[in-house]
Design brief:
170 residues; mainly beta; Elongation Factor Tu (Ef-tu), domain 3; SH3 type barrels; 7-stranded antiparallel sheet; 6-stranded mixed sheet; 13 strands; 5% helix; elongated; rRNA processing
Length: 170
């Protein structure tokens, strides 16, 4: 049974295809370590958030495959393609001070050391060197700022602001 409607949900990935003939699904994982999505069960799928218990799962090449209880053939698995995998936010691990889930930073205003507003956080990108904040500059454009100890001067969630050591013309 899924948690109550008032619960805050977190999308961890989506069903991207079928694997084999036993009803296994391919999973596109949004978690930092791809197979970390397998640490959560049940998965709440689709607009009705139907709960599916994870029977087994593993890395398969560069991706993740999973077997869900009650999904026993290719056609049942095929019906799940494209559905987002959600869990209640309360199932996420507690963060240490100074740690943030990206989703908690979306929409925050970004100010540089001079107090100039550079924009609001629209999304994040993972790169090999460091993560990158994608800002909506409020003028129809985007600004990319590396997210690192050198550029991020602090997050004030109460004020809904992120302070960075970055100039608007960089």
């Amino acid at each position: 049974m899924p948690p109550p409607e008032s619960e805050e949900w977190v999308v961890l990935g989506k069903i991207s295809g079928i694997y084999g003939v036993r009803g296994m699904v391919k999973v596109f994982s949004f978690t930092e370590l791809r197979d970390a999505i397998l640490d959560y069960s049940p998965w709440l799928l689709g607009p009705d958030r139907h709960a599916y218990v994870l029977e087994e799962g593993r890395m398969q090449g560069e991706g993740v495959v999973a077997k869900l209880v009650g999904v026993d053939d290719r056609e049942q698995a095929r019906a799940l393609i494209g559905q987002e995998i959600r869990i209640p936010r309360t199932h996420l691990p507690e963060l240490q001070p100074g740690e943030f889930y990206w989703r908690d930073l979306l929409g925050l205003q970004v100010l540089n050391q001079e107090g100039q507003c550079l924009g609001t956080v629209k999304s994040f990108l993972e790169t090999g060197a460091n993560d990158v904040m994608v800002l909506d500059d409020g003028k129809g454009g985007e600004l990319l700022i590396p997210w690192s100890g050198e550029t991020s001067a602090g997050v004030d969630r109460d004020a809904r602001q992120i302070h960075v050591d970055w100039q608007s013309d960089w």
